[in-house]
User: Which sequence fits this backbone?
C-alpha cells in the first residue's frame, strides 16, 4: 500500500483525507472536515481564506501523524476564484464568486469582446462569475504581480511555486479551448495584464517540496503534486463510467452535468444551450452544463433552522419527502434569483406563485419539490448533452455528495428514463489520490484503468427508472 494526502476544498466545506492505493485496493480515511463559506466584508462577499489555510495545515499535520508513510500532497478546490499576490503576499482576501460585482465585469467584457467570439476562443458557457469577468471588475488586479486560483494559491503557500494547473485554468475564460495555452491576445484586449497569468502545468507535475517552515509545522518534508485541481476534474477521474456513452453528474453545491469528449463542441447550438468545454485530466474535454445542485436544499434547511431555532435532521426530512404522493409542482432550479445566499424557501415560493403553481406544504412536500426540480434540470441537461455531442446516452453516473440523496437519484433516473449509478461519494478526493498515485508510479497509467479500480473498490448503487 502507498499513501498520499488529499486536500479537497468545496464551496461549503473542506476536508483532508489520507488515500491508500495498492493492488486492488483504494481506501480513503477522513482526517479532518471543516466549514467553508462566504463572509460579508465592507467591500463585498469574500472567502475567509486565512481560516481555510489554517484548517488545511492542521489537517495535513494530523494526516502525517496518523500515517507517517504519506509520500505526497495534492490540492483541489472549486473553480474561478483567485487570490492576487504582490511580492508573494496576498493583497486581500479572495472574493467569493457569488459577490455581485461580477455582473459589472461581464457587461464590460462583452462590450469589448462579443460573447460569440469569446465562446469560439475559450469554449466556456456564460456564468457571470467566470474569472475573466472577475478580473475585469477587480480594481486591485493592476496592483498585483500574479493571480492564482484557489488550489494554486494553496500550493504556492505550501511550496513557493507559482503555477496554474490546466484543468482549473480552463475555467478562467483565458485559456484557449483548442491550444490549452493562455490566450494572451484576449487578455490584452480585455486589459488583463499578462503578468497575472502564471506558468501552466499539467496534472501529475511535481510542483515542489514543502517550504521548510511548512514542513516543520506538518511534521514531514513532502512533495506537492498537481492533481486535476478543479474539483470536478478530479471527480470525473473517479466517475466509474460504464461505457463511452455514459454521462456524469458531479453533484454537490452545484451539479456539473455532461459527457467526456476528445474534442470540444463549439457549435452555435452548444453556445446557445450554455454548455461549456473545460479541460479534464489526460487532455479530455468535460463538455457540461452547470445546474444548481444541493445549494437549494442546504440553503432551505439553513433558513428553516434559523426560523425554528434548532437543527433539522435532513436524512429524516428526505425520507419523508420520498414518501410524498400526488402531483409535485416544479420550478426552474437554475433561475438567477436562487443564486445568492438568503431566504431560499421564500424565493422558491415566489417562483412557484409567479408560475401559478401551488406552494407545497408541509416541509416534506416542499423538499420533494426541490428534489424533483433539480432532477428535472439534471435530466434536461443530460438530454441536451447527448444531442449536442452526438452521444446516445445509455447511463448516468452520479458522484459526490448527491449520491447519498436517494430521492434525488431515483427522481433523476425517473425523469431521464436512464439507469443511474450513484457513487462514489468522495469522488473528488479519490480522483485527487489517483492522480498523485499515478505520478508516484503506484496506480495504473490510463483513465480507463483508474476507473476500473474505482468501480471494483467502490461499487455504485443502481437506480432504474420507474416510468
Assistant:
Amino acid at each position: 500500500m502507498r499513501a498520499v494526502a488529499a486536500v479537497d476544498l468545496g464551496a461549503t466545506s473542506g476536508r483532508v483525507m489520507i488515500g491508500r492505493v495498492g493492488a486492488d485496493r483504494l481506501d480513503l480515511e477522513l482526517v479532518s472536515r471543516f466549514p467553508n463559506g462566504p463572509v460579508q466584508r465592507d467591500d463585498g462577499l469574500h472567502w475567509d481564506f486565512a481560516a481555510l489555510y489554517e484548517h488545511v495545515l492542521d489537517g495535513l499535520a494530523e494526516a502525517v501523524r496518523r500515517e507517517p508513510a504519506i509520500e505526497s500532497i495534492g490540492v483541489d478546490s472549486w473553480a474561478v476564484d483567485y487570490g492576487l499576490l504582490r511580492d508573494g503576499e496576498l493583497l486581500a482576501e479572495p472574493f467569493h464568486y457569488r459577490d455581485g460585482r461580477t455582473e459589472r465585469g461581464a457587461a464590460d467584457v462583452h462590450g469589448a469582446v462579443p460573447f460569440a467570439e469569446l465562446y469560439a476562443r475559450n469554449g466556456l458557457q456564460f456564468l457571470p462569475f467566470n474569472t475573466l469577468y472577475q478580473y475585469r471588475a477587480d480594481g486591485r488586479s493592476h496592483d498585483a504581480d500574479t493571480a492564482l486560483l484557489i488550489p494554486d494559491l494553496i500550493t504556492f503557500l505550501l511550496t513557493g511555486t507559482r503555477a496554474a494547473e490546466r484543468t482549473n485554468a480552463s475555467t478562467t475564460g483565458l485559456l484557449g479551448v483548442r491550444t490549452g495555452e493562455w490566450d494572451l491576445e484576449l487578455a490584452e484586449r480585455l486589459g488583463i495584464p499578462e503578468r497575472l497569468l502564471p506558468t501552466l502545468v499539467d496534472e501529475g507535475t511535481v510542483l515542489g517540496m514543502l517550504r521548510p517552515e511548512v514542513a516543520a509545522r506538518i511534521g514531514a518534508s513532502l512533495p506537492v503534486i498537481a492533481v486535476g485541481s478543479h474539483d470536478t476534474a478530479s471527480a470525473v477521474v473517479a466517475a466509474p463510467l460504464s461505457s463511452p456513452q455514459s454521462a456524469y453528474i458531479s453533484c454537490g453545491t452545484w451539479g456539473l452535468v455532461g459527457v467526456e469528449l476528445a474534442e470540444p463542441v463549439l457549435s452555435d447550438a452548444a453556445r446557445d444551450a450554455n454548455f461549456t468545454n473545460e479541460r479534464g485530466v489526460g487532455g479530455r474535454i468535460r463538455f457540461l452544463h452547470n445546474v444548481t445542485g444541493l445549494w437549494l436544499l442546504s440553503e432551505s434547511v439553513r433558513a428553516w433552522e434559523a426560523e425554528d431555532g434548532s437543527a433539522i435532521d435532513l436524512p429524516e426530512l428526505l425520507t419523508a419527502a420520498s414518501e410524498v404522493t400526488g402531483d409535485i409542482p416544479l420550478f426552474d432550479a437554475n433561475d438567477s434569483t436562487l443564486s445568492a445566499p438568503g431566504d431560499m424557501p421564500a424565493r422558491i415560493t415566489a417562483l412557484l406563485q409567479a408560475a401559478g403553481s401551488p406552494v407545497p406544504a408541509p416541509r416534506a412536500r416542499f423538499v420533494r419539490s426541490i428534489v424533483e426540480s433539480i432532477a428535472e434540470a439534471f435530466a434536461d441537461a443530460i438530454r441536451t448533452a447527448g444531442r449536442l455531442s452526438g452521444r446516445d446516452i445509455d447511463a448516468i453516473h452520479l458522484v459526490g455528495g448527491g449520491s447519498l440523496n436517494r430521492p434525488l437519484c431515483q427522481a433523476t433516473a425517473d425523469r431521464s428514463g436512464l439507469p443511474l449509478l450513484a457513487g462514489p461519494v468522495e469522488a473528488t478526493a479519490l480522483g485527487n489520490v489517483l492522480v498523485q498515485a499515478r505520478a508516484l508510479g503506484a496506480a495504473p497509467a490510463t483513465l480507463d484503468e483508474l476507473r476500473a479500480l474505482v468501480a471494483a473498490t467502490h461499487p455504485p448503487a443502481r437506480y432504474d427508472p420507474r416510468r
Residues 363-389 form the longest helix (27 residues). The CA atoms of residues 209 and 223 lie 4 Å apart. The two ends are 45 Å apart (CA to CA).
